[in-house]
Design a protein that fits this description.
With about 475 residues, the protein is an alpha+beta fold. The protein is about 40% helix and about 20% strand. The protein is built from eight helices and 19 strands. α1 packs antiparallel against α8 and α3 runs antiparallel to α4. Its main location: secreted.
């Protein structure tokens, strides 16, 4: 009779025995699984460090780039009269500006008053013919007004739909049912002035000639802007001067009664902001490195990279670099000279008062960060830090190598766990086969024993 459940033949708790023996085979898995958890924590920590070093690279790149030191600011002592903006690279200087005239666009309209021809109604036909409009020295443009197209609104629409004309038209209602036509130059300045001549149509009663500029009232004459800058006279067809002073845009808003002072200076505010962003990026990295390598005696808890030579070496290298002396040709040789100092624990702090004082010689502050001498000792701090941090992240850099080493350890750990699991499975299968064979043998012996016992009993009865 076949044994269907291991242990029935032998009477042993075979399942428990096999389970315990299999567990013994899998015992090394616990250590490997614990190590795998630690390795994943290390990988996460290294990934954070890698990301934060990238932030340091970005911040150092800003400090090391000459372009980021070319920013300028421009201020006006009377912004209501004169606005000013500075482009990157504008030279630091002070200017005295006076505005005598503002640029204006020519504007004309139909005359009004007791002796003037009464204004037409909105539906009244002025007439038909051709308006010839010439702007400045450009060729005149003819606009045909056909019969039935001569209301002021229709005429204004034809003028406004003529592309590139240089004149715009609008219709103004005077509140009594009468309308007026206003023609205005698109551009300010004398070059934008226009003249309208009319060829009257053949229709009876046509009076299109009312729209000739000679017959209209000039509300505003075309005028160029006039100003003096440091005593030098300048003129412009526009109130925005972009080519008078290199890198500066002057916006003329009002005629002045007193000189307006324009001051162009280095944009030290942006430079300070870049320095603060670098300090923030570095301090974040420094805190992560400290936490990752620390040991908390009270909780007896070690950081994920505690004792790791690469991480400890990285922190020491950064601190050494930031406290080093550079020979950049600047009057400043250390970061501390411009107010950037390391505190207990390695975090950087900024003395704004000292930095502001250093900005009185901003060119030498720039050299401290941007100089490129070709060697570590002669390169500016921005250049050096960027190059050092980029090296850590390169294909053969320390951080990249550390990342790869942890990943390899994780892979090896997974391989070992698989080996142990597979070996435990094989042992379990072998034990099941062995105990199944034992059960079968024991069952056979038990059956034989019962048979023999039965025969003995029968024999004893027959001989009794």
């Amino acid at each position: 009779m076949a044994i269907s459940s291991t242990g029935l033949g032998s009477g042993l708790d075979v399942s428990s025995i096999i389970s315990q023996l299999s567990a013994l085979e899998k015992q090394p898995l616990k250590a490997l699984q614990s190590k795998a958890t630690n390795l994943q924590t290390q990988l996460s920590a290294v990934g954070t460090i890698q990301s934060q070093i990238s932030s340091v690279v970005s911040a150092a790149t800003k400090l090391g780039s000459v372009l980021n030191w070319k920013g300028t600011t421009a201020t006006s002592s009377n912004t209501a009269a004169l606005g000013v903006t500075a482009a990157t690279g504008a030279a630091a200087a002070t200017y005295s500006v006076e505005v005598q005239k503002l640029a204006k666009a020519q504007s004309v309209s139909l005359p009004t008053g007791p002796t003037a021809t009464p204004l037409p109604t909105a539906t009244e036909q002025i007439g038909a013919g051709t308006l010839s409009i010439q702007v400045g020295t450009k060729a005149a443009v003819d606009i045909t007004i056909n019969s039935g197209e001569g209301t002021l609104a229709q005429i204004a629409n034809k003028i406004n739909s003529t592309s590139g004309l240089g004149v715009s038209a609008s219709v103004l209602t005077d509140g009594s049912g009468k309308v007026n036509l206003i023609l205005r130059a698109t551009d300010t300045g004398i070059a934008g002035a226009f003249n309208v001549t009319v060829t009257e149509g053949a229709g009876v009663g046509s009076n299109l000639s009312r729209l000739a500029t000679a017959n209209m009232t000039q509300n505003q004459a075309a005028q160029n802007a006039e100003a003096t800058i440091n005593g030098v006279a300048v003129t412009s067809p526009k109130n925005t001067l972009t080519e008078v002073l290199g890198g500066l845009t002057l916006n003329l808003n009002q005629v002045t009664t007193a000189p307006v002072e324009v001051v162009v200076a280095k944009d030290t505010g942006s430079i300070k902001k870049n320095i603060e962003e670098f300090i923030t990026a570095y301090n974040t990295l420094n805190a992560t490195l400290s936490d990752a390598t620390a040991y908390d005696a009270s909780s007896k808890t070690a950081g994920p990279l505690q004792g790791d030579s690469v991480t400890n070496g990285l922190q020491r290298a950064f601190r050494g670099l930031l406290s080093s002396v550079n020979n950049t040709g600047s009057t400043f040789s250390r970061l501390a000279d411009v107010g950037i100092t390391a505190q207990l624990g390695g975090a950087l702090s900024l003395n704004s008062t000292k930095l502001t004082a250093a900005f009185s010689d901003v060119e030498n502050v720039q050299k401290l960060f941007t100089n490129f001498g070709g060697t570590d000792s002669t390169n500016g701090f921005g250049v050096r830090i960027k190059d050092f941090a980029n090296g850590l992240l390169s294909a053969s850099g320390a951080v990249t190598n550390k990342t790869n080493a942890v990943k390899k350890a994780i892979d090896n750990n997974a391989t070992e766990q698989t080996k142990i699991s597979n070996r435990a499975t094989l042992v379990e299968e072998r034990l099941k086969k062995q105990y199944t064979a034992l059960d079968t043998k024991m069952a056979s012996l038990t059956a034989l024993n019962a048979y023999v016992a039965q025969q003995v009993t029968t024999w004893n009865k027959s001989t009794g």
